[in-house]
Structure formats: structure tokens, C-alpha cells
Amino acid sequence: MYKYCLECDWQFDTAGDHTEAEISKRAIEHFVETGHTVDSLRLPPPVVRRN
């Protein structure tokens, strides 16, 4: 999941060690603190290659 602000450079995604719940919580906190609109994209699952 990738969440980003439509009004500033704030962004977060699950590519690191963060869960979707943590990212959603941070997006809500960003909205409450700034009043900015936050949008999200659902990232595709990683591709697993097998030999």
C-alpha cells in the first residue's frame, strides 16, 4: 500500500517494515495535523521467482 498527500510531499508505503495499519494510522495523523487530503494506491504483491 502506498499513501501520499495531495497537497505536500508526505508519503508512506509498505515497502519498508511498516504494516498497512501503521501507514493508515500515520495518514490519519497527517490529516488531523494538517487538514491535507491523503490518497492511496494498492501496490501489487511482490513477484516470487522460483528456480
SSE pattern: EEHE
What average pLDDT do the residues reach? 87
Bin the helical content.
Answer: 25-40%
Terminal residue distance: 28 Å
State the helix count.
1
Uncertain regions spanning at least 5 consecutive residues: none
How many beta strands in the DSSP annotation?
A: 3
> How would you write the strand order of the largest sheet?
2-1-3
Task: Describe this protein's structure.
This protein has 51 residues and is of the alpha+beta class. The protein has one domain. Helix content is 29%, strand content 22%. It has one helix at residues 20-34, and strands at 2-5, 11-13, 38-41. Strands 2-1-3 form a three-stranded antiparallel sheet, with helices on one face. It starts with a strand and ends in a 10-residue tail after the last strand.
Task: Give the topology, please.
Elements: E1 2-5, E2 11-13, H1 20-34, E3 38-41
Antiparallel strand pairs: 1-2, 1-3
Write a concise synopsis of the structure shown.
This protein has 51 residues and is of the alpha+beta class. Helix content is 29%, strand content 22%.
